[in-house]
Amino acid sequence: MNIKNPQFEISAVGPKQYPNNHLPEIVLVGKSNVGKSSFINTMINRKKLARTSSEPGKTRQINFYNMDNIFYFVDLPGYGYSKMSKKEQEQVGKFIEQYLFHRKEITLIIFLIDIRHSPTNNDRLMYNYIISSGLPCLILANKADKIAITKVDDTVKALQKELNPIGDIPTLPFSSERKIYKEAVWEFIDKYFKEEDILF
Ligand SMILES: Nc1nc2c(ncn2[C@@H]2O[C@H](COP(=O)(O)OP(=O)(O)OP(=O)(O)O)[C@@H](O)[C@H]2O)c(=O)[nH]1
Ligand SMILES: [Mg+2]
User: For residue 44, with 0-12 CB atoms within 10 Å meaning exposed, 13-18 middle and 19 or more buried, which class applies?
Assistant: First the structure.
């Protein structure tokens, strides 16, 4: 897919603010600072459409990015940012749950894990939720540039074995620094949309 005119549409804190045009939504989930917002920028070759930061906890609302009126990338706040006050963490947790548990437009979850580490407890909670929801999911082992290129494939396999031993959830490497992994993700999205007869 070649997105020509990606647009930020809205930052929402509740369902009333979600777009109501029923486009399919591809949602980014993962812990704080894993690279969700950067993923969106990388996929569409923009440096700053989605706001990123080296400080965890940058994204606090649910941001909808309209991809040529074909679908939305939905950027969620990350979980597990311990420096946020308890109240803020609870509030952000509520935004995430409210969206993930009820939004009918979700068509694919892109679940980012840091390629360098075993999944955290919160990653496992999120994984369990995804499995129980039955929503389609793609796992991305992100920040692949942080390990030697020759080790990427084996590390991705090991991570999949750890998190998803049955091996029924596709797992790919990704990196916003090393752009070579991007095409495979676009191919996955294209194929997925075609198979599910989702659009156009
Ligand atoms: N080396 C490397 N750094 C990355 C990659 N992706 C993101 N980063 C960096 O990681 C930091 C966090 O990136 P964000 O995209 O803001 O992370 P996020 O998951 O949106 O974080 P929250 O909004 O806090 O949940 C930034 O400093 C990015 O430049 C990657 O693939 N490789
Ligand atoms: Mg973010």
Answer: buried
Report residues whose beta carbon is within 6 angstroms of any ligand 1 atom. Answer: 30, 32-38, 52-54, 56-59, 77-78, 142-143, 145-146, 175-177
Q: How far is CA 87 from CA 90, 97, 183, in A?
A: 5, 15, 40
Closest residue by Cα to atom 26, ligand 1, is 54
Sign of CA dihedral 146, 65, 86, 113: negative
User: Which pLDDT tens digit goes with each residue over 82-123?
Assistant: 778 888 888 888 888 899 999 999 999 999 999 999 999 999
Residue 3 C-alpha from the chain's centroid: 18
Q: What does the H/E/C string look like for 100-169?
A: HHHCCCEEEEEEEEECCCCCCHHHHHHHHHHHHHCCCEEEEEECHHHCCHHHHHHHHHHHHHHHCCCCCC
Q: Could you tell me the pTM of the whole model?
A: 0.95
pLDDT at res. 199: 64
Domains belonging to the chain, first-starting first, are 6-195 (3.40.50.300)
